[in-house]
Amino acid sequence: MRSIFITGGGSGIGRAVAILFAGRGWRVGLADVNVAGMEETRALLGGAQASVHPLDVRDRAGWAGALAAFADERGAIDVVFNNAGIAVSGPFAETSEAELDRAVAINLMGVVNGARAAYPFLKAAGSGACLLNTASAAGIYGVSGGAIYSATKFAVRGLTESLDLEWTAEGIAVRSLMPGFIDTPLLDAVPAGSNETTRERVRSMGLEFTPVEQVAEAAWKAVHGGPLHTPIGKTARRLAFAARWFPGRLRKGLQRRR
Predict the structure, then answer these.
(1) CA–CA gap between residue 133 and residue 3 (Å, rounded)
(2) Residue 69: which CATH number?
(3) CA triplet 89, 29, 214: central angle to 5 degrees?
């Protein structure tokens, strides 16, 4: 039985990926700081083999312990999904130093910690192993009002590319998901310096919300030989196309939307 360890497994993308992989016969490890959320996810998996691992991705020792507890008798895990992250939005100059530090610690260093901790378990799994990272459409082109978030997601994108080059000879693929706006409760937050929720702002710009189930299907394809980066949703795909072929026009368009 193949296995996947998922951070941020208590809700959103992590929960949707857990449901899909469990439904297709995989053993699932759920990691999150939200224990109640993980238990809710596990209940949704029915009779699938699943375990709960309380984990703050900033905790390197916690990473080592959680992965060791989940690994099979060979010390192997087929897929580690670096998915946990936080949304930080609002004008950069008005974002507190504490918020900046927390975003980097979770969205970037949490992924770095996960990659380092996952390596021996993925290597033990052999051919077909995959480190899957959640980046973002904000890692395709910078987002006004989301500077630190974009910065961390660009870093995840770069880490993914570098590690895929380093680890491919050992049978480990490294992939990233780059979704647009995902319909989760995170969109109901009101960014600093704004009087509307992120959800309301997305609607006012005429952009779409991508269902988490679509992200889960993309995750399945990514770990089964999919491309290095997978833009998910119309907004992400259009952004990727424009950033490659019409960067000047894209920049002007985004400036008008501010």
Answers:
(1) 16
(2) 3.40.50.720
(3) 55
Q: How many domains is the chain partitioned into structurally?
A: 1
171: left (phi over 0), alpha (psi -120 to 50) or beta: left
Query: Which residues are known catalytic residues?
Result: 149
pTM over 0.85: yes
Planar angle of CA 43, 18, 140, nearest 5 degrees: 140
Distance CA 91, CA 144 (A): 8
C-alpha separations of 101 from 104, 146, 153, 223 in Å: 5, 14, 14, 31
Q: Which domain holds residue 247?
A: 3-256
- 16 vs 12: CA distance, rounded Å: 6
Q: Among positive and negative, which fits the CA dihedral 127, 133, 137, 142? A: negative
Cα separation, 207 vs 204, whole angstroms:
8
- pLDDT tens over the chain, length 258 residues: 999 999 999 999 999 999 999 999 999 999 999 999 999 999 999 888 999 999 999 999 999 999 999 999 999 999 999 999 998 888 999 999 999 999 999 999 999 999 999 999 999 999 999 999 999 999 999 988 899 999 999 999 999 999 999 999 999 999 999 998 777 666 666 656 556 666 666 565 556 688 999 999 999 999 999 999 999 998 889 888 888 888 788 787 776 655
Nearest to 28 by CA among 9, 55, 56, 54: 9
Residue with tokens 């910690």: 113
Using CA of residue 47, residue 53, residue 58, residue 60, what is the dihedral sign? negative
